[in-house]
Design brief:
The structure is a homodimer. By secondary structure, chain A is an alpha/beta fold. Chain A is built from 13 helices and 13 strands. Helix content of chain A is 40%, strand content 14%. Chains A and B meet through helix 4, helix 5, helix 9 and helix 10 of A and helix 4, helix 5, helix 9 and helix 10 of B.
Amino acid sequence: MSKAYAEMSKEELRELQEQLNSKYVDAKGKGLSLNMARGKPSPAQLDMVMDFLDVLDSKSAMISEDGVDTRNYGEMDGIPEAKKLMADIMDTQPENIIVCGNASLNIMYDTFSRAFVHGIMGNTPWAKLDKVKFLCPAPGYDRHFAICEHFGVEMITVPMFSDGPDMDMIEKLVAEDESIKGIWCVPKYSNPLGVSYSDEKVKRFAALKPAAKDFRIFWDNAYAIHHLYEDESRQDKILDIISECAKAGNPDMVFEFASTSKVTFAGAGISAIASSVANLDDMRKSMTIQTIGYDKINQLRHVRYFKDINGVKAHMMKHASFLRPKFEACEKVLDEELSGLGIASWTVPNGGYFISLDVLEGCAKKVVSMCKEAGVTLTGAGATFPYKKDPKDSNIRIAPSYPSPEEMAQATDLLVLCVKLAAVEKLLEA
Amino acid sequence: MSKAYAEMSKEELRELQEQLNSKYVDAKGKGLSLNMARGKPSPAQLDMVMDFLDVLDSKSAMISEDGVDTRNYGEMDGIPEAKKLMADIMDTQPENIIVCGNASLNIMYDTFSRAFVHGIMGNTPWAKLDKVKFLCPAPGYDRHFAICEHFGVEMITVPMFSDGPDMDMIEKLVAEDESIKGIWCVPKYSNPLGVSYSDEKVKRFAALKPAAKDFRIFWDNAYAIHHLYEDESRQDKILDIISECAKAGNPDMVFEFASTSKVTFAGAGISAIASSVANLDDMRKSMTIQTIGYDKINQLRHVRYFKDINGVKAHMMKHASFLRPKFEACEKVLDEELSGLGIASWTVPNGGYFISLDVLEGCAKKVVSMCKEAGVTLTGAGATFPYKKDPKDSNIRIAPSYPSPEEMAQATDLLVLCVKLAAVEKLLEA
């Protein structure tokens, strides 16, 4: 039905441009004000979790399984029942878990900070090295890259594919360059692609032979349980990196992170780090100086609310029922309006919080700014790459979680219009 | 009535020793198991706050004064009503406040960490300096000293008096040594002495002329509202260090810390840092990389529970009614058993969480270990000094908050017995 733009004559393109321009002028007149910039839960999704606030009250028993009063100081590791719950979410064992505060980003930052000041397991603190480099599969999560930038860590972009990052490149680089100290990964429903690492890639990660003894995989399992579909065949599964690393003779090579920020309340959840016992013991040396303990009452609240991992899974299916229509509303418009035009490609993820859209090279910034002008805010173009520089200026991250499905359709209508306009302009300039 | 031990003959001392020894053997037989080691709230005190868990439930309005959904991401500074509450507790203004996570110790550690990796206001990061020194008024808080030790900061002990630390020494040292980057202070009901800084000393702090441009006073106002007496004449007051520093032309010289750990629940309260706007802006550069925001729901819970500072003050009077009898039970035994013997002196604080006991030089370790042997755990002797080394081996910190008043009396009975025994042994050796 639709003709690929590249096959159009200049004249056809000019005519199309005129039509699109007139539509864009109309769109600007509508006074839209929609935000698809960040992976924020919607008010409706949060309303659904309000009964979380009922589970603890003045009549509640406040003692943990191992007899600790959750209202008092201590138990830095977290209460045992919370360690078990987070271990089940992260597909590991309670002894590999420290339950922390309200945000996994905070643990990631602190882990960096510790590596810089105190070093990992007796290795030279990174602050004392001339050069520290990190591998950054991209498109990726802007806040990971921001941590690197803030600590002056040089980022090396690694291409992402639909089954994980470019392992050939990673294997080669870490083996030959001792200044490469880590890599950022979002292994499941990755931000922003929504793809999950294949078993083969996870095994290749676990078998890396890095030159740096303190090389660590920063495994941000942010979307471990964030499926969009009930049908198990549409639920991605990844291997447990911690046991894979152990099997491959690299037991200490990974720090894994997760939280319940997108499970209960964003900013009022609990987070956890998972790693080898040796790594955790190394961390505890600093953590016990940094804190007497994290918020155990909120840990207890989570355990009482969910009971166990099955409670979490059932709860996440309710989330899916809220999120799925938003994703599908966006995907429908993308499909109907952009298929076959040869000017864009996008991901159709089974979970997570994002859809990734690639437009013609050199057009992403323009598209984002045109959308903004007409009232739809997207994540800044380039944000998904180190130093906010998308070398092709083509990737756009779409966050469908906040708007309603209707708003998502409206916002995507505008987005596809801008994608088309930018494409036509580019082709006319060629 | 009682004769000073120093005036006793060897024979009298030997006789006394025999009596005391026999009492000690009896005491050991009682099978005591009491803990006066840490400033932990007692279960009864925590029971009193259980209605704190009722203020938010599934029916609650969750939007902050400025329209922010506390259940969602964002608002790194904290919600305005929580900034106001913490500002009132800390006797400063909301614009001088960032409300943080569950523990002020964590903010102090992070503030150190930032200074080490990123430097304060563009100054050289401390990690890049050959030497960083801190002044440590002592006896003081062991966890402050632990942070210094963990970061390899050299600690210089400064004597503490009943109205604050030795200002002559502090003024001289900071003026001449650029490697001195800070000082730890607990200005009100100080840990462990329970004394508060006089107005004159606060003013001298504010007027310091440090050689280091990035010298900072770490003002741990942990017991800002923790009075033991309703009578206002027995409530210590200190000057606001932030406005005093501003008046003295040193607006950026102080970081102040506080939390509600000993107001609501230990480990599930909220904390805050107070400082000049310029300092806070400098911190925000790192904090916005470290976190999207702290737990705003717990902030809201605090504000709804207390309404305002008057609610907090009324609440703290309920705490006082729990804590006071424990302090008084201890003080009564100390007074009755040790007055006039010339072998000990102790503080009688108007607030805070500790009583400080000084025994004969060289006897503190022995007393603590004898107590332990008979079932009463005290803070390790030396813990109140840098590197855990009390140069006189004479200071013992008593934490009356956890045991009941009856248990405090029992525990202090044993303590005074051990103080006497150690004194007699010392005098006999002389």
